[in-house]
Amino acid sequence: MFKEFKEFALKGNVLDLAVAVVMGAAFNKIVTALVSYIIMPLIGLIFGTVDFAKSWSFMGIKYGMFVQSIIDFIIIAFALFIFVKIANTLMKKEEEEEEIEENTVLLTEIRDLLREKN
To answer: Self-association or partners: how does it assemble (predicted)?
Structure first.
């Protein structure tokens, strides 16, 4: 049972997922700091309040914090979209290169077979 767990835990996909989770958490902290300390104060200046997120509330409901969370989400979603788009482009190029190599090998084999036949 320990051997099976070790094989599972050390597979590439599990390690890749663990790295992705840690990187995602770190990226989330960066985006939250960006929104909290740079973007929201600028929005606050536009609307005339120093701390937009904390000062915008109605009957105890802090909808300013909700707006801040939405901005966090939009920035994270956009960054992930760009990252996935770049990763897909790079993977597509690698697949095309592999396909070209496979085609070259097949064409070489066909050529050699035709030479042998003649």
So the answer is: Homopentamer.
| Cα–Cα distance for residue pair 106/117, rounded to 1 Å | 16
Q: Walk along the chain (118 residues) in steps of 10 and give the mean pLDDT of each run.
A: 74 72 84 81 74 70 79 83 83 74 81 84
Q: Is residue 76 classed exposed, middle or buried when 0-12, 13-18 and 19+ CB atoms within 10 A define those classes?
A: middle
Angle between helices 63-117 and 12-34 (to 10 degrees): 140
> How would you label 77-113 residue by residue, b for 16+ Cβ within 10 Å and e otherwise?
eeeeeeeeeeeeeeeeeeeeeeeeeeeeeeeeeeeee
Could you tell me the residue ranges of all domains in the chain?
2-91
